[in-house]
């Protein structure tokens, strides 16, 4: 008797072919992340810039020598071999170019902050919905395996209880050159300033901690720091929920590097000091204290906080690209775009809008739109 035939293996999914719209410095980090993925996952098929020379120089630096050069953004969008676009342009340019990406049926990986306001983001998301393309923003820490482990702990009702308070601080000490010339301090390019930059991470970390339940009210902290053009350099806010939960955040271009988040529950406390960019690519840690009490007669703590270390074979930006390519390949195979990521982006933008409005109104309490 002949032996049974070996099962036929389905062909491996074809690599997702990215176009990079603009040669921003952050695009180099995304390019490096793609090179870390297994062969056949993702490739940069083309780079679009406002000049051929700039696109050509960028391609020579990023490790994708076969990528095609496009001397205009329009030309890249017309490239039939590009099926997904990474868009790192200044926030003020997101609506026209992100909607153009979607209108041409190309999936969209969009730098944060995704828009100047929720109405602009809704225009982008509506264009993606109409074309049936996948949307994701580029918040990287949410894809780190540490984040999944932290979610597991915060969701443990016995060990952690109910979340009651969250504190978040994201900052870096910007150079004088940055404060004069970076796009993040220019009102015509990134008018949200620090609030849209590292403030985005503060707001998302708070929403993550409460499983994306929107607060009822926000009140911006008084006396935000602005530059001469009126762009925010340092600010903060307090968020309130109807059940008594509260959260505070501060974000700054004027304070030492910090990516701290502390979540306080009725039974536990979680603290992470390097949320946005871990100290090391291959591992990330956080600490948890559970059911803490004093050692009598008030001479110590018991139990002591426990440190958790989560290792990873790929850095968080590569895991983000890996997840995005998986979703694109699913749509390519006939599936629907994943709605989780645009929903998280929109909630972050909604809270950011409320904070900005409170700042503009002299720290007046603002209700958060549903």
Automatic annotation (TrEMBL):
Residues 16-136 form the Gfo/Idh/MocA-like oxidoreductase N-terminal domain. Residues 149-270 form the GFO/IDH/MocA-like oxidoreductase domain. This is Oxidoreductase. Belongs to the Gfo/Idh/MocA family. Pfam families: GFO_IDH_MocA, GFO_IDH_MocA_C3. InterPro entries: Gfo/Idh/MocA-like_OxRdtase_N (IPR000683), GFO_IDH_MocA-like_dom (IPR055170), NAD(P)-bd_dom_sf (IPR036291). One of its GO terms (molecular function) is nucleotide binding. It comes from the Eukaryota.
